[in-house]
Automatic annotation (TrEMBL):
This is PAS domain-containing protein. InterPro entries: DUF1457 (IPR009922). Pfam families: PAS_5 (PF07310).
Length: 174
């Protein structure tokens, strides 16, 4: 345990940098209109059977595709790889992580925080919303809202997460 965690500040790492501290919301109470539309789209696909990757159509998603994320899910051990980051997300984050695995992108202890959030959707097969603040590529802190919904294979196993992110400068919320 770090010295700062012992003093009740688990949001600060050993180097004094604020950590990515997502707050999961399994109720999926979305605020962002773009995430509300992506969630409605996923739910329309889930109305018939558990949705699969093949059920997604970029033309149906329309302009919201710029905020879409797709994550490959591997089991045993549980791992994630960025399959797609929409253009608006790459711009907000300041780098394109498409094709990269979480363990290659995130340093510990951030990796543990990220895994905790995404594992919830991958292991339960339920969508999850999370909110928090983050800093990317020496940019200003951003407040974000994120949605991740499971996509299944023919055997009913989660093999991908579909969703999106919405970023706003932290100053917008003060």
């Amino acid at each position: 345990m770090t010295e700062t965690a012992k003093r009740g500040r688990p949001d600060i790492d050993l180097l004094g940098r604020p950590r990515y501290r997502p707050v999961p919301d399994p109720s999926v109470t979305l605020v962002s209109p773009v995430l509300q539309r992506l969630y409605a789209y996923w739910r329309s696909k889930a109305a018939v059977r558990p949705p699969r990757r093949a059920d997604l159509d970029p033309l149906e998603i329309g302009p919201d595709i710029h905020n879409v994320t797709l994550l490959d899910v591997r089991h045993e051990p549980l791992r994630f790889r960025w399959r797609l980051l929409g253009g608006e997300l790459v711009e907000a984050i300041g780098r394109n992580m498409t094709g990269r695995r979480f363990e290659d992108v995130y340093a510990h202890p951030i990796l543990a925080d990220v895994m905790r959030v995404f594992s919830r959707a991958a292991l339960t097969g339920l969508p999850v919303r999370h909110v928090g603040t983050a800093r990317f590529a020496e940019r200003s802190y951003l407040r974000y809202e994120s949605l991740h919904c499971p996509l299944f294979d023919g055997a009913g196993r989660v093999v991908m997460l579909f969703g999106g992110l919405h970023f706003e400068p932290l100053a917008s919320f003060e």
